[in-house]
Amino acid sequence: MFDKLHEECGVFAIYGHPEASKMAYLGLYALQHRGQESAGVATSDGQETYCHKAMGHVADIFTNPVLSGLPGHLAIGHTRYSTAGDTVLLNAQPFSVACNKGRIAIAHNGNITNAAELRQELERRGSIFQASSDTEVILHLIAHSSERTLAGALRDALLQLEGAFSLVCLAGDRVIVARDPNGFRPLAAGQMEFSGGRVCSVFASETCAFDLIGAVYLDDVNPGEMMIVGPEGITREQYAPAQPLAQCVFEHVYFSRPDSIVFGRPVQESREMLGRLLARECPADADLVVPVPDSGVTAAIGYAAESGLPFRYGLIRNHYVGRTFIEPSQAIRDFGVKLKLNPVRHLLEGKSVVLVDDSIVRGTTSRKLIRMVRQAGARAVHLRISCPPTISPCFYGVDTPTRNELIASHNTVEEIRRFVEADSLGYLSLAALRQAVGDDERHEYCYACYTGDYPTELVNIEELMAAKPKRC
Ligand code: AMP
After folding, report:
1. Minimum CA distance residue for ligand 1 atom 20
2. Model pLDDT for residues 388-421, shown as the tens digit of each residue
3. Into which CATH architecture does domain 266-436 fall?
4. Which of the following CATH numbers is that of domain 10-246: 3.40.50.300, 3.60.20.10, 3.30.200.20, 3.30.1330.60?
5. Is 446 among the catalytic positions?
6. Euclidean distance between the first and the last CA atom of the chain, given in angstroms as a whole number
């Protein structure tokens, strides 16, 4: 059985660069926010495959000696955030194996909703699994396929998957990338020029990875599409029939960096508009707009611009909080939050403050932050959230706790306000969220976490609902 179902990750791939592993390292460095538990790079020189993965941050893992051990002009990379209790190296990606179809390395972002069923069936047929990650299922499906080519076997495997996947593969002298037919998770395609005007192909979860290596964003891998880059050039193939689009709106609300273009749309634009619309829907009688850094910053800028209230950094974030800090043996109240954020008393003292954050999950962070802002002298705290109440868990790759643990699933806005101890609480409406991401006329996004309306059939909904991943 899988002990975890929710995974947030970043993926990267490059074909045709003499320093492919270094480019993958840089790409992952820019995607670090998508996962901080483990990272890995697999490379190929067209014949041999090399792979290195470890727990920790990209910059700590990929030292010069490690990168020198990853030769070749093809590379894929992965950075992974997993839930507590499941942070074993065995689950780190890429997975690199030799099977009856040749050598293959694979990395994936998303969550395959029928992975447990597929795994049971594969185990019945004799497959032996090493990890608890659903990515391994794809490799076994490839090995079991009656198709003879790797691309054919991959197509065969993908057609059996349900849910969300944006994946990158190294298959001998080819890079193959694919996206699920609903397009839940992003996957951008680009091109990079290097020495003497030569060009190579690159792929990444977010375009901020392209900016760092000097690549240009050309297009997205389309939902249901597979792109193969090899010695013969690039081929694009619609491997699955088109499905209604269900792009993850939370990428624009929280997950992606504001300097990225995600699903063909600048995240900055969406996020600032979320803040502007929030100011229109939920105004506040206040002196200052203060973001919860970093996730609330861009929406707070929008809120301030629309409301005419001054924007101030009233909470300062320590960016160097690692996992290895030494906790005091005597408990200090709210230690975790204090370690990360500290209020600026000079700004907050005697003020009525609009505190802007992207979401409330369990409500415990907001409560601690509001207490902190009050202790720093604020006379009133008006909490504003740049999306609707999160009432349902995500099964497509965003880490959310079970429904019961989501405060908005069983409390009214007034009850939540009392729990977080705010003077007032306002959430953005679903209609405004749709407007902010340019989806009011179209129907291209998934809003399941706000509506409970899942865009795909979930064969094992009870099991998915009962799974209990912990947020770190
Ligand atoms: P909570 O205390 O559970 O209400 O956590 C709310 C905080 O978690 C907010 O500041 C959000 O920015 C942040 N957050 C929301 N969703 C996620 C997620 N999927 N992964 C990590 N952090 C998140």
Report:
1. 399
2. 999 999 999 998 889 999 999 999 999 999 999 9
3. 3-Layer(aba) Sandwich (3.40)
4. 3.60.20.10
5. no
6. 22
